[in-house]
Write a structure and sequence with these properties.
Layout (H helix, E strand, L loop, with lengths): L1 E11 L5 E2 L1 H13 L3 E10 L3 E12 L2
Antiparallel strand pairs: 1-2, 1-4, 3-4
Length: about 60
């Protein structure tokens, strides 16, 4: 059995579309140490295709 979790990161900046790479890496590494693994990613867009948020779906085996 698996359990799932979704992490969302804001893509800010002057015209949006910039993700804080260090924040994402640190968060995903911390979650990896807890047994989570990324199974999919997607971006949520707004207006004329500007990236607004990035979603990561993670899973781990239920304990």
């Amino acid at each position: 059995m698996w359990e799932y979790r979704v992490e969302m990161f804001f893509a800010g900046g002057f015209l949006f579309g910039k993700v804080n790479k260090s924040e994402v890496e640190n968060s995903l590494n911390d979650l990896s140490n807890l047994g989570w693994e990324v199974v999919s990613t997607t971006s949520l867009n707004r207006f004329f295709g500007e990236t607004h948020n990035v979603l990561y779906t993670l899973r781990r085996e239920k304990k």
